[in-house]
Amino acid sequence: MTQVLRLANGGLIDRTRMLRFRFDGRDFTGHSGDTLASALLANGVHLVGRSFKYHRPRGFVGIGQEDANALVRVATGDQVEPNLKAGEVVLRDGLEAFSINCRPSPRHDLRAVHQIAAPLLIAGFYYKTFMWPNWHLFEGAIRRAAGLGTAPEGRDLDRYVHAYADCDLLVVGAGPAGLTAALDGARTGARTILAEADFAIGGSALWRGGSDAAEAATAAEAELRALPNVTILSRTQVFGYYDHNALAAVEYLADHGARQRLWKLRAGRVILASGAIERPLVFAGNDRPGVMLASAAQALVGRFAVLPGRRAVIFTNNDSAYDAAAALAVAGAEVTLVDSRPASAASAPGVRILHDRVVSATKGVRHVRAAIVADRAGRISETLPCDLIGMSGGWSPIVHLFSQSGGKLRFCEEIQGFVPGEAVQPVTAVGGAAGALGTLAIEPLWEVPGRGKKFVDFANDVTAHDIAIAMRENYVSVEHLKRYTTLGMGVDQGKTSNVNGLAIAGALTGRAPGKVGTTKFRPPYSPIALGALAGPLVGPLFRPLRHLPAHDWHVARGALFEEHGGWWRPSAYPHVGETLEAAAAREARAARTGAALFDGSPLGKIEVSGPDAARFLDRVYVGTASTLRPGRARYGLMLNENGVVIDDGVFVRLADDRYLVHTTSGGADRIAAMLDEWLQCEWRDLDVVVMNVGSQWATLTVSGPSARDLLAALGTDIDLADFPHMRFREGRVAGLPARVLRASFTGEASYEISVAAGAASGLATAIAAKGAPFGLTPIGVEAIMILRIEKGYLAIGVDTDGTTLPDDLGMAGGVARKGSDFIGRRSLDRPDAVRPDRLQLVGLLTDGPRLAVGAHVLREGGVPGVSDGHVTSSVDSPALGRPIALALIRAGRARLGETVTLYDMGIRHRATIVEPVFFDREGQRLNDGHS
Length: 931
Description:
By secondary structure, this protein is an alpha+beta fold. The protein is 21% helix and 30% strand. Strand 34 (633-639) and strand 35 (645-655) form a beta hairpin.
């Protein structure tokens, strides 16, 4: 298609460089310097999509970040990115874009029937309209209809990078005010960063002020680029302002290499020169294609040499629109200006001006074809045929970043908008962002009387009627109004809608706009790619998983791996055709009847040494470390200052001044850091060294009735006949230097053999070679979970939560026996800690199917909604031949033998509360014949 609306002269495009692109399968041309929006308009394309809720035809409201109407999907090879603003998409050769939220096309959208159901889709309809007979009857259809573009299903193949910079001065916005501020700072020698979202430097000087303004901007840019202390970041959107003058920005890079760069900036001072956004006027039919901001029409003419309409109506309540009207007239359009004010000192040569009049409605379907002009009382005076309506309801300074910084906003009567007020960080707003907009002589006009849909928020199809409904239903708080109507949400973030919406709400409730207040602006200011936030930290780098020292050995034996506590560990070793559940049950039976091999290398290992090591651990553990003799081990709980259980494990006294502390696998780094913090911050008088040695050792556990015989067959110089439970020995096993601990998480006699990490595979191979006569079976984490639940052993974070105290686990004896203080002790005497109805760990037996983890214990009466506790762990026990579970239940220990009702996903179950130990309650199997 030829560029039918491209002017023969003018603009800042490079007419020598023709670019070809496609939109909705049709071929078009544009020029270097175009955006997708300007190129489409140059080709006469005004209809580019359908609206969010009602699927009304939508065109361009603006031509940049302010446009929430013209959202497109851009495809680059196999990559697809939805919901991009056409005015922010830089035109490039071969670009392919598609309209969104329409089937099959914007001209013929099947979902346009939503307009028939418009009376049902009012503000908050999902809270009240579709409640009968059942919300779930409608939920699926409503959720499928929600949203605009379709999220890509494939992996993001683009590359993103992160960068960091600090500066003395950060200037956001490279318009006339921003360029001046950057020059003033840079000339003093200050390290200056100038960030501009547009691909061109100059801001409004690119389309307003004539050639003199453009030349001044070009000269300022050249001077800044020549200074060594200045960094100019074009195509860089500053989207977040955080504490301590930290800001975040996304830079859009060239088409080769990385796609985007996330900047994390720290500035001594910030100057916000981000400008202001023109506000729409609220009148019936103001969302039709061909109705746009007057400044957008002026920018199309001045910057892109595009005449967006040949018969234009400019509707305004202030003086700024007169420049737009004059620019359109000079470009060859027939222009009528409708001014709601009785008179104005401004002028627009060649433009017909109607004072004390308003545009009360529009005509047209897929494009505007007429404006209905009325007096202020709503009496129609004439109908103006047109193909363009430019509206100007005043200007809103871009205060989003200032608000994010913690600054307060105030309402300025002179511009009828919110401007920066008191700052709490070193930040200053200048130019349009500060409300310096010249003489607008604006007269408030928040809503034009008349019938029909009057849109306030184009992005979310929020109308003036929706705001009226919210006010009638008492959602008068701006935060409630926002969430009830979706005003200012989504891709727009209130850029064109907030002030109008708040003012209309104020008028309906008898409050001035300044008294209504504003919502708290949150990052990001504009949508950003999730890939930019992640940067290079994707795939294995997103959360690096640690591999076991004997990883390859497990792979060779068919292990099925899953993540457990940051480690890539075998869940089970299924045979061909065997399910994970069946494999875990088989492995658990093997541990009870023969011998099992479990890789416990992730178990935390921290060496605590020094003259005060015993005193230190006495303060850390509920149990007492100082009375433990070398070569012996003891189970202990660690609490936080609230008395809550945060970790458990076995600690071993290696020597008088040296201990080996075992933690849970997922808690090793956290506990090591905690111990260091206590030593460095609270107990600096203690002479103690804490060293995390987990990565130095591999731990292979041999467990089961035949474990001791298997260890003997391996060959060891340790006296196994004198090696009872909870003892520690050092010696050689299978010819390797080893540490061996008699501790168990299975309930069977177990030997935890620790060797140098590099020797793990060799030891595992030796154990497997000697284990066949004993029925040795490698077991994974799933089998270990079965075995520990049968024995009633707890798992931190599974059978505990952020409120669990030692007595809740039946472990108050250690507290009572200990005379000295320890972390969290005083919290155990608080009234809440001694309530008799606390959640306590108990067992559950059921004759039915296995209970679901998370199933709730119902209170007396069995009414869902009031919980008496919940299931924390649940398995089918191979040793018992029935389902068993652990649960946290109110006053559970006082209710042993009670039958309770459990509720999960609409199904009720019955179970009996029992002791949490289901297997070998006397512990005979642990001792392996030793006392």
